[in-house]
Specification:
The protein has about 130 residues and is an alpha/beta fold. Helices cover about 35% and strands about 25% of the residues.
């Protein structure tokens, strides 16, 4: 049943490692890609096709360089035939109501989740 491709975008290698470990335990996840910056993730997505585009993105918002919201401004310009099947979740340590409200302002973002990912059921999110 593992068929979901997941993209983790977080500048913390430790968070990516932990989240990858959590996701790899789910039978729903077949492939996990990690990127440590919004810019690297965007490059990956710009070169992706229907077979390599992720089904789920977990996006940190507080990152140096391109933060998660800047990433989203570029993401929404990607071809709709690729993005329409992808669910984006903000996965952040921020509980700032302004960040949560800003996350909710994007129709492309399913939900604002607080770290760690282990506190959330992957099966319920999917």
């Amino acid at each position: 049943m593992g068929s979901k491709r997941v993209l983790l975008i977080d500048d913390s290698e430790i968070d990516n490692y932990i989240n990858k470990a959590v996701l790899s335990k789910s039978e729903l996840v077949s492939d996990i890609i990690t990127k440590t910056s919004g810019a690297d993730a965007l490059k990956y997505l710009e070169n992706a096709n229907e077979n390599s585009f992720p089904d789920i993105i977990f996006l940190d918002i507080r990152m140096p360089g391109m933060d998660g919201f800047e990433f989203m401004e570029h993401y929404i310009k990607l071809p709709e035939n690729l993005t329409e099947q992808c669910k984006v979740f903000v996965l952040s340590s921020s509980i700032d109501p302004i960040d949560i409200e800003r996350s909710n302002s994007y129709k492309e973002i399913e939900k604002h989740l607080t770290k760690p990912l282990a506190h959330h059921s992957i099966e319920k999110l999917v």
